[in-house]
Amino acid sequence: MERKIMDSLREWKNSPVRKPLILVGARQVGKTYILKEFGRQEYENVAYLNCDRNEKARGLFSEGYDMQRIIIAIGALTRTTIKPGKTLIVLDEIQELEHGLTALKYFCEDAPGYHVAVAGSLLGIAMRHGESAPVGKVNIIRMYPMDFEEYLLARGETSMIDILKSKDWTTISMIHDALEKLLREYYFVGGMPEAVSTFIRSLDTNAVRQVHNEILFIYRSDMSKHVTSSEATRISMVWQSIPSQLARENKKFIYGAVKAGARAKEFEMAIQWLVDAGLVYRISRVRDVAMPLKFYEDFSAFKLYLLDVGLLGALSEIEPAQMLLSNDAMKECKGALTENYVLCQMKCMDDIYTYYYSREDSKLEVDFMVQCRGHVIPVEVKAEENLRSKSLSTFISSHPELKAIRFSMSKYIDQDWLTNVPLYGVQMAFDK
């Protein structure tokens, strides 16, 4: 399946200041597949080494950092002739190798002609335990689940993507119903590559849900594998609380919803673990709206979103038919799923910084406050075609210099103070 990150990988390959690459991202987002596919397309050969499955690889860096010896050893282990600039060396699950991250410094300094890319599950967590990637000696690229545009590519809908990118809203409105159907499909399937490929291959919603549940099982296993049992319990409690946290009208994270009487200090490490693992996104409140928004961040108030809308549906135990059909059977969940979807689409984009805004009395809230290429953009999310925006209109009346975006199932409407963009056009709304 075609992924946009391939362009970033090609830029890395051709960069005159290229360094060893760390590809970061949550488990199951397709890091291994994309590195192998990148190597197949762009290099003569690939020296792929899974450091978790090869016992002989465990001591690769234990005898020091003689790069000539190490490169010969990698060639022997992978049965590949390694040539500078012609071979892509891929070290998968690098966190399983002692001194693996440290070794990247020596690839950079002593063997710059070799192209090295590494990936690892929960790499952000591994870096926190005594070994870190050498500062200034590596390039880092973040990988996310497939966004809606990539989903359309996988479904073979390239013409729809071309029409969306044209921003010809008159023409786009002619295929509005078809795009809405595909969007509801994406709400269910989500962007985890295995779930997408399963759906495309079989069109079996039960098989897709099984994939979701297997991924959730892997994540729960990771929670118990990498931390103490008491910390794993707290991580799991936070994780399981996210659907109910997002189902509330005020989606601010409430510790008391995890456990009655809970305090921040009990669960702050659990939340950070989930953020570091790439399983959740933490979106902070801003106290004021001015550039840069970071100056006004309130760390005590935040929302948590899952990395993928399909996984949110599975974790919430929503029936597939409820997600695929436009009806009132899931009123309480629509807002949560839609807001999570919009956030995930924005996270996949470069140069976008996302927060949310609310007054201290919580009587006025704007779903997202986005900083994008020198502008602050208030963003409201509507699950269906309800276009009433009392909070947003009140906010804009006190900030008339700003123009808002509302994402909804309605067609494109441009007004003086607000632009309504169909939910399938989230990324197009922020394109240059």
Shape, principal axes of CA atoms:
globular
Terminus-to-terminus distance: 25 Å
Portion of residues in beta strands equals: 15-25%
Tally of DSSP helical segments = 18
What class, by secondary structure content? alpha/beta
Radius of gyration: 23 Å
Helix coverage percent: 40-55%
Largest sheet: 8 strands, mixed
Mean of pLDDT: 92
Number of strands: 13
Give start-end ranges of low-pLDDT stretches: none
Strand order of the largest sheet: 7-6-8-9-10-11-13-12
Please supply descriptive tags for the structure shown above:
eight-stranded mixed β-sheet; 432 residues; 18% strand; 18 helices; five-stranded parallel β-sheet; alpha/beta
Topology of helices and strands:
Layout: H1 5-14, E1 21-24, H2 31-42, E2 45-50, H3 67-78, E3 87-92, H4 100-110, E4 115-119, H5 123-126, E5 139-142, H6 148-154, H7 158-166, H8 169-174, H9 176-189, H10 193-202, H11 205-225, H12 229-247, H13 264-276, E6 280-286, E7 297-306, H14 309-315, H15 320-324, H16 331-347, E8 352-358, E9 365-372, E10 375-381, H17 390-398, E11 404-408, E12 413-414, E13 418-422, H18 426-430
Parallel strand pairs: 1-4, 1-5, 2-3, 3-4, 6-8, 10-11, 11-13
Antiparallel strand pairs: 6-7, 8-9, 9-10, 12-13
Helix pairs in contact: 9-14, 10-11, 11-12, 11-14, 12-13
